[in-house]
Specification:
homodimer; alpha+beta; six-stranded mixed sheet; five-stranded mixed sheet
């Protein structure tokens, strides 16, 4: 049965995690194909806390491709969306849904249009790699609808053309984006180094930092760095390859000391390259610096890293603790310095709120009774309001199909986004 | 006549400028001799606005060497002071003061002790290279008292052993500190590239930025950078030598565009290396970043640099304008964003206050009537209180002997610091 005009709507829904790089990607060697100047390594975050959910619907009644992000229609005309749509369409196969009596032949996909609705379970503007989760989810879910059989490596390569770091969100756990050598980008793919079960003690606390500044987009920022920073190529060619090897070894052996030292050093070096750019790019602010100083002083006083920190293209701190004990100690220090502005502890901690109990923080009275961290030199300094909220999370799995109809973002009858 | 116990006091007073590097010194290859990992270039500031004044007195009645800094006695036991005293004493010559009937033979200097009083005409804690002016002045004035005949190159090499950047304060105008090759430091000296008259249109505005953070001392900071920053040696060996050549050319030809681009890029790269250090060092704060963004946006909107900025080991901005017109325009933008907290315009501008009239700012009403800079995207942002005050200055001359008795800091009868 060939595709004909009809009322049917075929749909799939997927959910993809976000990821945070511990060896940073900064700089493209090919802008159009999004090919990086160095390998990078990331951890995938629990999609229950930070993820994108995307529904892709197809129907012969759709006159054009359309997309809605967080309930608002956005244009699909950009090259990044078009690249992903084209590459997945190219690989589309026959699809048969016996229950609905739908059969789509491989060649029909060129004529069919899609409706895409996507939603992030965390603020898009918070600078938490929403585009990584978003493009990974778009490619994954388009692939499901169109019955694409290619392996995850190839999917990662397509997601890469939407947003570089999206290729790393195709897997859970620890992921490496191999820069590749080929000019066509065919070998610039992500591979999984270890799944999320390999090192499941790790606890991740994100401090969402209030920012008044308009930030430089990472796309234009890394273009400026490639064009103007004398340090960028040296970092990419001489420093990162060695760090990647050491980081792979640290992950393999669950060596937190090495993992933490590499993570912090590479975050700082990425921001150093940003500062070496003309015009210089400042993603971290005074609050970010204070969080780093707090962690560094603690780590120094213990003689070995208790917690790692890393910052992407924004002021938010991503803090990685080796276990819940250290995460709870960290939280005590953080809440001493950055108490909630509105005295509402519950909404100040998002994600795994149970970490508050681990830290003995069951009420605002507990927060107010916190002693100053012993290693702090000016213990009277508190910065209420400088952190918007915290997220407590952990490592998580890669993209998954969501089968519950209630979770779908598109109405299977109208083919339009559900009313929220 | 040999030196005998007696009541006489012989004294000299000198004044030395501070300097600000436009190609930065960051990292020693020899800690004891203070030998740098790269050449650096600085401008000497007008000693009328920023300088150290030092009186050195000698008397057979002094039982030991003593020093007072800004009226408070400080220890001379540190290696840096001892190096300067030893090196100057080694080169001391016969001194005869016929009026006072004093004759000191060369060999007497080993037995004679000195009293030193030094005073900075700007806040020591403001991070404005007070040690550069201070050690240059100490060496210069000790040399005058002890009739040292060595050339300024050799004096700079002695001042270097007190504080690295002090060697550049031995000259006025534009100064290069040649890193040298010898292990004994004998060729690590400063040379004058051009005197202050060579390019006398330049106007220097310093924003003294309020800071709550305790800063890392530059001595320990650069030690950490040398030991831990993978970018520092690459900068020192590969990037700086080329920049030094270009900067010398820019100064020679009074090419402000090139001068400004090199100055800003090198300041940013120095701070990049600080950030690449473990633990990372943050000398600039949000206010510093805002000043950079303000200048960068202006420069970009004009297509060519209107003003250069450079930051040393602290949050203060040193802004260099090619002429009074640009300095006045800069001041309008700065005072729009950073109005004085206490409504006292006169004490908000130190040094050459006449720049306020050039900018049409004769009262607080004029400041309040300032329009938002056209290139600003969020024109409603004002940061009252984030700048403590401004200093307007220019290029200046090297160390000078101060002959007026009233300017001496030591009482020529008691041999002790004058009551202030």
């Amino acid at each position: 049965m060939a595709v004909e005009e009809g009322q049917w709507v075929l749909m799939a829904t997927g959910r993809s995690p976000t990821n945070i790089a511990v060896i940073k990607y900064w700089g493209k060697r090919d802008e159009a194909l999004i090919l990086p100047v160095n390998d990078s390594i990331s951890v995938t975050l629990d999609p229950g806390h930070l993820s994108a959910t995307t529904s892709v619907a197809v129907s012969p009644s759709f006159p054009s491709d359309r997309m809605w992000l967080n309930g608002k229609e956005i244009s699909l005309s950009g090259g990044r969306f078009q690249n992903c749509l084209r590459e997945i369409r190219k690989r589309a196969r026959d699809v048969e849904d016996e229950k609905k009596g739908i059969r789509i032949n491989k060649e029909d996909w060129e004529k069919l249009h899609v409706h895409i609705a996507s939603y992030n379970n965390f603020p898009t503007a918070a600078g938490l790699a929403s585009s990584a989760a978003g493009f990974a989810c778009l490619v994954f879910t388009l692939g499901k609808v169109m019955n694409v059989m290619e392996d995850y490596g190839e999917l990662s390569s397509i997601a890469r053309q939407g947003s570089g770091s999206a290729c790393r969100s195709i897997y859970g756990g620890f992921v490496k984006w191999c820069m590749g050598k080929n000019n066509d980008g065919s070998d610039s793919i992500a591979v999984q180094l270890a799944d999320e079960a390999h090192w499941n003690d790790l606890v991740i606390i994100i401090a969402v930092v209030s920012s008044k500044q308009k930030e430089t987009s990472s796309t234009s920022g890394m273009r400026d760095s490639v064009e103007t920073s004398p340090l960028l190529q040296y970092r990419a060619q001489t420093i990162v390859p060695n760090r990647v090897l050491k980081m792979e070894e640290a992950i393999k052996s669950r060596n937190f000391e090495s993992f933490a030292r590499l993570t912090c050093a590479d975050s700082n070096q990425f921001h150093a390259v940003c500062m070496d750019t003309s015009s210089p790019i400042f993603y971290m602010n005074d609050t970010s610096h204070r969080i780093i100083n707090l962690v560094e002083k603690w780590n120094q006083s213990e003689g070995t890293p208790q917690v790692a920190y890393t910052f992407d293209a924004g002021p938010n701190a991503v803090l990685i603790a080796p276990n819940r004990k250290n995460a709870a100690l960290l939280l005590q220090k953080l809440l001493y310095c950055f108490p909630p502005q509105d005295h509402d502890l519950s909404s100040y901690m998002v994600g795994d709120k149970s970490i508050l109990s681990d830290a003995g923080l069951n009420s605002m009275e507990d927060v107010e009774a916190l002693p100053a961290p012993a290693e702090m030199k000016t213990p009277n300094q508190k910065f209420k309001g400088d952190v918007s909220y915290f997220i407590c999370s952990r490592l998580g799995a890669g993209p998954k199909v969501v089968t519950e109809e209630t979770q779908a973002l598109i109405d299977s009858v109208t083919g339009l986004p559900k009313e929220v």
